Amino acid sequence: MLDNEPDFSDVEGGSSSTAPKPAGASTYTVVKGDSLSKIAKQIYGDAQQWKQIYEANKDVIKNPDQIYPGQVLRIP
Amino acid sequence: MPRHSWTLVVLGLGTATLGACKKAPPPPPPSEVSTPPQPPPPPPFAVKTIDVGKGITADKHVATPTTTFGVRDTIFVSVLTDGAAPSKTISAKWTFQTGKVVQEQNETIAPTGPAATEFHISKKTPWPAGKYKVEVIVDGSSAGSKDFEIKK
């Protein structure tokens, strides 16, 4: 059966706000091409901090080398 | 000492004693401390405006709202809110005309007053032409949506 749905797998996105963030409650939505170290580099400026993100999201990340677009990660 | 003199002394002592027993007058009431008037409490958190456009300003407002985009455009939605809350999660759910979810994003904020929150999506390959919708969700409840169209 043909799937006529268009492909949105290469959609990228982001968000920001003028409002302050609650302490310890920020989140990040994974986009295609992301890795934990890439996210850590983007947020903390240090890719080595990926373990912090992994530790805070062990309930949703089974393998730190496999995260998926659309996953919402807690940023400690 | 003559008798009348003793009487005067006793009377004088009595008066002095009575005077000493008199209760001290109550202290004057403390002068009213002038406290600065309290600012009115901020209004409850609410979404005021949802705008869609091709770009945003530094204060996260859509520069020129539009509902028609080209296949290479980045699409922005700006959610203007008012009110304070310790934590609010604003989500933008982008869907294609078929109902397929293009992307869903979240931004958790602790607003203290008027605020603007933006979400944006772009695509490495051209957008499929058609009708799209972005729904704004606050803490799991829909707060409004905007329809837009991408044309070739």
Global mean pLDDT of chain A: 84
The SSE order of chain A reads: EEHHE
Instruction: Give the CA-based shape of chain B.
Output: elongated
Beta-strand portion of chain A reads 15-25%
Distance between the termini of chain A: 44 Å
* Alpha-beta classification of chain B: mainly beta
Number of strands of chain A: 3
Number of strands of chain B: 8
Rough shape of chain A?
globular
Outline the biggest β-sheet of chain A. Answer: 2 strands, antiparallel
Q: If helices are DSSP runs of H or I spanning 4 or more residues, what is the number of helices of chain B?
A: 1
Structural class of chain A: alpha+beta
Q: How far apart, in Å, are the first and last alpha carbons of chain B?
A: 128 Å
Within the largest sheet of chain A, what's the order of strands? Answer: 2-3
Brief summary:
The complex is a heterodimer of chains A (76) and B (152). Chain A is α+β, with helices and mostly antiparallel strands.
Describe the protein's architecture and organization.
The complex is a heterodimer of chains A (76) and B (152). Chain A has 2 helices and 3 strands, in the order ββααβ. With 76 residues, chain A is an alpha+beta fold. In chain A, helix 1 (36-44) packs across helix 2. Chain B is elongated, with a radius of gyration of 37 Å. The chains are: A alpha+beta (76), B mainly beta (152). The interface between A and B is medium-sized, with 25 and 36 residues.
